[in-house]
TrEMBL record:
InterPro entries: PS_Dcarbxylase (IPR003817), PsiD-like (IPR022237). Residues 397-406 have a biased composition (Basic and acidic residues). Residues 51-178 form the L-tryptophan decarboxylase PsiD-like domain. Pfam families: PS_Dcarbxylase (PF02666), PSDC (PF12588). This is Phosphatidylserine decarboxylase. The keyword Lyase applies. It comes from the Bacteria. GO terms for biological process: phosphatidylethanolamine biosynthetic process. Keywords: Decarboxylase, Lyase, Pyruvate, Zymogen. Residues 397-420 are annotated as: Disordered. One of its GO terms (molecular function) is phosphatidylserine decarboxylase activity. The keyword Membrane does not apply.
């Protein structure tokens, strides 16, 4: 079997977590080629945005970075993968096109993170690992993603906020898939009252739709996000080899902005991780009641995955343990009202196109269980809760965790803490 046939067989047999991207490689190829054709057509008539020109200047001004990116593209093509582009310049034209792209709805074949799909194979090539960990490259990529986020926060992003099938986000299929009757909207208004794509993506739940489990019981921990269970890890270390296949959690790296005395309290503790779906609620809520001790953002990578996952379209999804230590993220540490519980760290990780992890809870603020902490603005996302040692008695979701597990509702019971 040739390389291309082998690679396509491999990707069609695997699922992607969260319904962000299609599982079948032939569908991914069709999308890449469609986007590439539109991008090349626009490139002939429309100048690139400043942020993409600056990205081009960075790449072409750094010999090593340019070499690694060129080789990553060549390595992917030599392995038999169809990218839709053959050079850095063609890739930059596609990135520029996507910076003003409003994703359409698709119930059966979602493409919610299109740039992830465009970068899929160079990301997991030997040279690609180096590119997507480069600090300067990620810093400029953040500016590109911020530019796209600005577009998605404006009125021109509402192209598909309609009831028109098949791509309208308010079509009958979308309403059923996403249970839109559970969210606040004004259907008498154009675009149901949403001012932008991001306003729709960060839509609010109606009052009472997600009641807080055991609001008066401090020993009940609730889900901070509407997310499917991904992993539970116990006896986590301050420093660990988070880049290996098992991806153990390395606390000092995850909590990069926290003081040493805070991080030390989690040594030997427990981490719970869940991943969000493209079609679900993207705001974060307090898993416990207490005082916000830390609330900060950490700059990091956006498309970096771990080599141990190998050449696989699911590589970024399967690198979720690794991404907690390297990706752009928001960290909120809560000092629980119950002294025996101590600290709980909430880490909200922006994967792929997520460039905006927005924190609304402030240090010193007291939050009740279920209060809003912040939200993701667009893209693939994962989160974890970190507990001190010997605090958790049991988690509600039990392993093994399957890649088609339905999301646990936000504010529902996640775990029970030891009463002592």
């Amino acid at each position: 079997m040739d390389a291309k046939a082998s690679n396509n067989t491999q990707t069609t047999s695997k699922r992607r977590l969260g319904n962000w991207l299609p599982a079948k490689e032939e569908i991914a190829i069709a999308f890449r080629e469609e986007i590439a054709a539109a991008a090349y057509e626009r490139a002939g008539t429309t100048p690139r945005s400043l942020v993409v020109r600056q990205l081009a200047d960075l790449i072409h001004g750094d010999t090593v970075l340019r070499m690694h990116l060129s080789r990553a593209i060549a390595q992917a093509r030599d392995a038999g993968f169809t990218l839709g582009y053959t050079s850095i310049d063609e890739l930059l034209s596609i990135i520029d096109y996507l910076s003003t792209y409003a994703p359409p709805f698709n119930a059966s074949v979602p493409i919610a993170t299109p740039l992830n799909l465009v970068l899929d194979w160079p990301m997991c090539m030997p040279s690609g690992y180096l590119v997507f960990r480069d600090p300067a490259f990620n810093a400029q990529l953040r500016r590109v993603l911020d530019y796209w986020c600005g577009f998605l926060s404006g009125p021109h992003s509402r192209e598909h906020l309609t009831t028109s099938a098949p791509h309208g986000w308010f079509s009958e299929a979308a309403q059923q898939k996403m249970r839109l009757d559970e969210f606040v909207s004004d259907r008498s208004q154009p675009h149901w009252g949403f001012e932008s794509w991001n306003a729709f993506f960060t839509r609010r739940l109606r009052d009472g739709v997600r009641p807080v489990a055991a609001p008066d019981d401090p020993h009940v921990v609730v889900n901070a996000c509407e997310a499917s269970p991904y992993n539970v890890s116990e006896n986590c270390q301050l420093h660990d080899r988070f880049w290996i296949k098992a991806q153990p959690y390395s606390l000092r790296e995850i909590l990069e902005g926290s003081p040493d005395d805070v991080v030390m309290r989690f040594s030997g503790g427990t981490v719970y991780q869940g991943y969000l779906s493209a079609f679900n609620y993207h705001r974060w809520h307090a898993p416990v009641a207490g005082r916000v001790r830390e609330a900060y953002n950490v700059d990091g990578t956006f498309f970096s995955e771990v080599e141990a996952e190998g050449t696989d379209a699911r590589g970024l999804n399967d690198s979720q343990g690794y991404t907690t230590a390297v990706a752009a993220r928001a960290v909120i540490v809560i000092e629980c009202d119950t002294p025996a519980v101590g600290l709980v760290a909430c880490v909200f990780v922006g994967m792929a196109e997520v460039s905006s992890c927005r924190i609304v809870a402030l240090p010193g603020q007291h939050v009740e269980k279920g209060d809003e902490l912040g939200f993701f603005q667009y893209g693939g996302s994962t989160y974890c809760l970190i507990f001190e040692p010997d605090v958790i008695e049991q988690f509600e979701p039990k392993p093994p965790y399957h890649d088609d597990s339905p999301p646990l509702k936000v504010n529902s019971r996640l775990a029970t803490m030891r009463s002592g």
